[in-house]
Write a structure and sequence with these properties.
The complex is a heterodimer of chains A (79) and B (499). By secondary structure, chain A is mainly alpha-helical. Chain A has a single domain, classed as ACP-like (Non-ribosomal Peptide Synthetase Peptidyl Carrier Protein, Chain A, Orthogonal Bundle). In chain A, 62% of the residues lie in helices and 0% in strands. Chain A is built from four helices and no strands. In chain A, helix 1 crosses helix 4. Chain B is an all-alpha fold. Chain B contains 22 helices and no strands. In chain B, helix 2 crosses helix 6 and helix 11 crosses helix 13. Classes of the chains: A mainly alpha (79), B mainly alpha (499). The interface between A and B is medium-sized, with 14 and 18 residues.
């Protein structure tokens, strides 16, 4: 799975969770997305896990800094 | 050793001079000795608890890191022993009393003794800080510290040991041990922050506390809604000035040593919702509960099953989140003290948090339907006042921490129609109190500036003004505190010490 494909599927997950279109880049953080708070973070992580059939360790749930790291992690866990 | 005493000022002056006079590699050792001395000053007996917490979390973290013990058992062992110690010294009396009551209710005679053990000051804070570190090691977020004494300094660093902020290992530990040279600007910023903390404590918190403390012992003498609104608002101001003032002194002292502590407050009374309030008030505790209880609860197997049991996206998110919030807020209440009053206070916030989750789609629709209204400043102001009212009402539960007194306050507030309450509170505050309103206004004005321009605007402005003006401000501030502040014997307590 390449980054472009991950981004395409991720954009649809974000739209689903936040009910709006979100422009995603490697540098996008929670502060850039209205509604991405600690509550929605877990919903987002759960939805991403369902979409990509992966399971994030807690280290990554609390530690990922931006969408770039999220995409890297999805690719790493999908291998 | 309380920060607002002469003995602490002398202690810190000595630490500051010796710390910067020593070579870099020797500084952390000196900080450890100073921290143990500082804590032992309260009572040498407390060092036992600090020692046990330090030893247990050290062994657990190193054991997990070297794979001598499994990550699961390392984390569980550290949690059981440290939280167990907290339970024995903070909650045993409460626990026994409830067991006795429960057994009596089902007709079984039980008489567990009424044990009242002395709670070591700061135990709740450093147990949480060191346990958070163990969990971070378990999650492989940070490596374990192999040097016992370095670990001991992380647990006992004196500016924060008694009242927080609850430090995050990844951010605090590297600063404790890194090489650094004296930075004049940071030292000045630190002194300014300390002075601001002293101002909040001696000019606002001490004076307000002195005037309204008699109220809590004679709740029945103060009838009426206006009277109690005034008392609760004044308590809100007192608690904020007291706790955030103490944090300012802690952060300022640490900044003078070149170590930045996590912030615990960010203009909390400007929050527009209850959840935002808790992202601005006692931030390190909120963050601790989020990382080490709320997230694990939401990620637990049973919660995932609940999530998958609902086909509707709304329910599959709202139900498990609400269950987890209820647990987290009951625990947050209980962390503050061993009484049903504190649990009720936690549940009070839990209810608002759950309402926020349950009603989120309705808020969203409202926002989309009336964007001009919800984006306007009067609406923001309404949200701030509403949040402040909710928080302030919560103090009717929090301050007495006793449900009988809370119900008496509510009865006085909502059923007693007696104008005499206003005269009673006027008499309690008495005339000399009026000048305090100027200091309160100044505190909130500074917060308002930080709220609108969060990047240290005031200190940057102070740095730019001509030297004579700057020193006039310093001297006037010091003069006001010396002559108008209330300090010394009888004013040495801080509201958050008891937690």
């Amino acid at each position: 799975m390449d980054r472009t494909e991950v981004y395409t599927r991720l954009a649809s997950v974000f739209q689903d969770v936040f009910d709006r279109e979100v422009a995603l880049t490697d540098e996008t953080t929670a502060a850039d997305v209205p509604g991405w708070d600690s509550l929605n973070h877990i919903t987002l992580i759960g939805t991403i896990e369902d979409e990509f059939d992966v399971k994030f360790p807690m280290k990554d749930v609390v530690g990922m800094k931006n969408v770039g790291e999220l995409v890297d992690k999805i690719i790493e866990l999908s291998k | 050793m309380v920060f607002t005493t002469l003995e602490f000022i002398l202690f810190f002056a000595a630490v500051f001079v010796v710390y910067w006079a020593l070579p870099s590699r020797a500084r952390w050792g000196m900080l450890l000795v100073a921290s143990w001395f500082f804590y032992a000053w309260a009572s040498p007996y407390y060092l036992i608890f600090l020692g046990v917490t330090t030893g247990v979390t050290y062994l657990a973290a190193v054991g997990m890191d070297t794979k001598r013990i499994s990550r699961t058992w390392g984390g569980v062992g550290a949690a059981v022993i440290t939280i167990g110690m907290l339970v024995v010294f903070k909650y045993l009396e409460f626990l026994f009393a409830n067991v006795n009551w429960l057994m009596g209710a089902v007709g079984v005679h039980a008489s567990l003794p009424a044990v009242k053990l002395l709670l070591p000051i700061g135990l709740s804070f450093y147990v949480f800080q060191s346990l958070g570190y163990c969990i971070d090691v378990q999650r492989e977020i940070v490596p374990a510290e192999r040097n016992f004494f370095k670990h001991a300094l992380f647990v006992s660093y004196f500016p924060q040991i008694m009242q927080g902020p609850i430090g995050d290992y990844g951010r605090l530990a590297p600063q404790l041990f890194e090489k650094k040279s004296f930075n004049y600007e940071q030292a000045v910023f630190g002194i300014q922050r300390v002075a601001w903390g002293f101002f909040k404590k001696v000019m606002i918190a001490n004076i307000v506390a002195d005037r309204i403390n008699p109220v809590w012992d004679a709740v029945g003498d103060y009838p009426g809604f206006i009277c109690w609104s005034a008392i609760l608002v004044l308590y809100a101001i007192q608690l904020y000035a007291d706790f955030s003032g103490y944090m300012d002194i802690a952060c300022g002292c640490s900044q003078m040593l070149g170590i930045k502590l996590d912030e615990n407050f960010n203009c909390p009374y400007f929050a527009r919702s209850v959840s935002e309030f808790w992202r601005r008030w006692h931030m390190t505790l909120t963050s601790w509960f989020k990382n080490y209880l709320f997230y694990p609860l939401l990620r637990s197997g049973w919660n995932m099953s609940v999530r998958k049991a609902f086909s509707s996206r709304y329910l599959s998110s709202a139900v498990p989140v609400s269950i987890s919030l209820a647990i987290v807020w009951a625990a947050t209440g209980l962390w503050h003290g061993a009484s049903w009053g504190y649990v009720a206070w936690g549940v009070y916030y839990g209810v608002f948090m759950i309402l926020g989750v349950v009603l989120a789609p309705a808020y969203d629709v409202f926002h989309k339907k009336f964007p001009r209204l919800t984006d306007s400043w009067p609406y923001s102001l309404f949200q701030m006042v509403r949040t402040f009212a909710i928080v302030t009402m919560g103090y009717a539960i929090f301050k007495p921490a006793d449900l009988a007194t809370t119900s008496e306050i509510l009865r006085q507030m909502f059923s007693a129609i007696d104008g005499g309450g206003i005269y009673q509170i006027q008499y309690t505050l008495h005339h000399s109190f009026i000048k305090v309103f100027a200091w309160i206004a100044l505190m909130f004005a500074v917060d308002a500036i930080h709220y609108t321009k969060p990047n240290g605007t005031i200190r940057a402005w102070l740095r730019r003004v001509p030297l004579p003006v700057r020193w006039t401000i310093y001297v006037t501030g010091l003069w006001l505190m010396v002559f108008y502040g209330e300090y010394g014997s009888g004013f040495e307590q801080f509201e958050y010490f008891k937690f």
